[in-house]
Amino acid sequence: MTFSLDIKDESTRASLGARASMPVKESLVGLTREEMAEALSGIGIPERQIKMRVQQLWHWLYVRGVSSFDDMFNISKDLRATLARHFNIARPEIVEEQISNDGTRKWLFRFPPRGAGRPVEIETVYIPEEGRGTLCISSQVGCTLTCSFCHTGTQKLVRNLTSEEILAQLLIARDRLGDFPERDTPDGAIVPAEGRKISNIVMMGMGEPLYNFEAVKKALLIASDGDGLSLSKRRITLSTSGVVPEILRTGEEIGVMLAISLHAPDDDLRDLLVPINKKYPLEQLMDACRKYPGLSNARRITFEYVMLKDVNDSLDHARALVNLLRGIPAKINLIPFNPWPGTNYQCSDWETIEKFADYINNAGYASPIRTPRGRDILAACGQLKSESERLKKHERLALEAMMIANHGEA
Ligand code: SAH
Ligand code: SF4
Q1: pLDDT greater than 60 at residue 281
Q2: Measured at the alpha carbon of residue 7, what is the angle toward residues 208 and 205, in degrees to the nearest 5?
Q3: What homologous superfamily is domain 115-407 in, according to CATH?
Q4: Known catalytic residue at 123
Q5: How far apart are the CA of 196 and the centre of ligand 1, in A?
């Protein structure tokens, strides 16, 4: 059963921190410590206080998860009022929250316009699993790339998300899942790392994270900051379609785990499926992977491989894949294709996927098949786009029918 919570009621919205109609003030969320210090200095906070104030704010924002200056009880009332006059720390608007019958959650968030643009909507998904919970975060609204099997790829890039907006997805998800201490008990216990619902994050939502490098870097460094949100970098995975020049920088400057959307073992096929391959062909991509800092058997690159019927799913493809990855500490994540209205691709048969997985396993690679999750709320990979919310009813029904035909009844 799908449980859908439409947050249209004003008081609920306000209590969730939504401030849709307020003018956009500079946000303190998503700033580095240095930028926050500059912002505070810019409103006249005395230099000798700045370091301490940054520390206080960092703790309130990222350890306690507050979204109103009023809750920062160890800061004087006057200073709180000054901060509130200049800065905004409110959460963006939650337009919709859906909870799947398998526990997967999907949120539709609305972010205010930047500059002359319009408000934008993006989706974030939470996937609970045995022993862990993963939040799938978006980095852009739409995507400039046009991978032929991806629904997001049919949507033009609207804009990059800011570091604040990337981080806001994690903050709101933690609010909603109870990963922050209770607001009304300001000295309430901090939820210990082992008890948190969100233990992992993946940059696998909408957009190509390496085409929004600076904002993604800032957000991930804050998410992994030990005095704040404290997610281990080994539990953060950034997925790229293969923006080669930024891959090494990802390792050196962000230091998170890497996933590559490979999907084909040779250039001819990859040019068709993942067109950025024409710019950065496999030889360059594999070279960048080999040089990724810190690789070992315990720290492998994940290669994502979407299973497309009669396109990339033969045992010859599996053989070529194993040859291609030789020498790279790798695991291969087989993703059953999620169909969408208008696509010409189909998902490979289950038997074919299993044979493919067996071949790769026998060659010594872990090759989990990603089980489709949250299908009843269209929370699957490659289907995250704000437009999925705007699908006409008959399109939505067609999509659901396609998914059931492909994977069997949920
Ligand atoms: N742009 C980045 C991250 C977002 S996509 C990237 O391409 O890596 C997250 C993963 O879902 C990618 O591996 C992508 O190729 C895959 N994907 C996209 N559309 C899909 C679909 N319809 N079915 C299954 N996987 C899909
Ligand atoms: Fe963009 Fe990734 Fe989709 Fe390709 S698979 S179109 S890079 S979101």
Answers
A1: yes
A2: 10
A3: Aldolase class I (3.20.20.70)
A4: yes
A5: 26
